[in-house]
Amino acid sequence: SGTRAQLLLSDTPAFPSLQIWHAGLDLAGATRFGSSVTNPANAVGRWIRGLNARGRFNNIHLFAEFSEGSRAFGFAGSIVDLELDGYRGAPALMGGQGQLWGDGRAFAMQLNTAQSKLQFPKLFTDTWDMDYLQGMVKAWFGPSYLAMRGSGMKTRIGESNIAGSFSLTRPDPRHEQRLALQLQVDGAEVSAAKSFVPYKIPEKLSEWLAEGPQAGRLSKVTFAYQGQFRVRPGELGRRLELEADIAHATVRYDSKW
Q1: Any idea of the CA torsion for 205, 186, 116, 136, to the nearest 10 degrees?
Q2: Neighbours of 241 (CB within 10 A)
Q3: Contact of 229 with 256, CB cutoff 8 Å
Q4: Which residues contact 195 (CB under 8 A, 6 or more apart)?
């Protein structure tokens, strides 16, 4: 049947534990089920619907332990062909795979993916085609709060090897919702590097980065972004730093210079 269950009873019958193994399930069906049984106003329910996970969850292990006044629940398994929609700052992913484990309020995923696509729709215009993607992603859900962190992220896009990390916090107050992103790139042509310029930067800076650097080879590229998703008028709520060495450069300066 693809499912096994085991009920374990200790010497104290009031404290049983339950273990279930299942061969696998379709994540799209699980997403539909989760959406139907959770409150639309609940943070977990909103994220289940927003991320809209598709793919396969295989070799699933579930456990539940019950003791006086408390209970614990957990799960673990492997994910293949994972697709996620970008939602409220979380990245969109196509073609993910790895190991997933967690409980009712938190989860972690060790990514080990080949030939996938990644996009941060709240920060970058382009979708990045990756030869591989490795790293750890952790998330925690609360009644009115979500935190997500990606660490030890490594990938290759075109001719560039990239390492980095990201974190986002989503409390209910909209102006307290923040994203931080750090990237290190070993090298890239100027034309390719423009894919990593976020669109939520001052207009004049965006125009110069689009039109000023014309050609050249960048190396030792470091990019850092930290800021709010929404800022009040006049508020300095976003910070950006970009540093790189450039060789054989062609730069168009302002005509008045």
Answers
A1: -100
A2: 10
A3: no
A4: 124, 126, 128, 157
Dihedral angle, C-alpha 257, 196, 180, 93, nearest 10 °: 160
Residue pLDDT tens, the chain, 257 long: 466 655 555 555 556 678 888 888 898 888 887 777 677 666 677 777 888 899 999 999 988 877 777 777 889 999 999 999 988 778 899 999 999 999 878 889 999 998 899 998 877 888 999 999 999 999 888 777 888 899 999 999 988 999 999 998 887 777 778 888 899 999 999 988 888 888 877 788 888 888 888 899 999 999 898 887 777 787 777 788 889 999 998 988 877 77
Q: Would strands 92-103 and 145-157 be described as parallel, antiparallel, or unpaired? A: unpaired
Question: 128 Cβ partners below 8 Å, 6+ apart?
Answer: 117, 118, 119, 155, 157, 195
Pairing outcome for strands 17-26 and 160-169:
unpaired
Query: Around Cβ 83, how many Cβ atoms within 10 Å?
Result: 18
Distances (CA, A) of 189 to 20, 77, 80, 164, 214: 51, 40, 33, 19, 10
Q: ∠ CA(29), CA(51), CA(3), 5° rounding?
A: 30
C-alpha to C-alpha distance for 197 and 213, rounded to whole angstroms: 12
pTM for this predicted structure:
0.81
By C-alpha distance, which of 206, 205, 209, 226 is closest to 218? Answer: 209
Give the HSE-up count for residue 21: Cα atoms under 13 Å, Cβ half-sphere.
Answer: 6
Residue from 216, 84, 176 nearest 137 by CA: 84
20's torsion region: left (phi>0), alpha (psi -120 to 50) or beta?
A: beta
DSSP 8-state secondary structure symbol assigned to residue 173: S
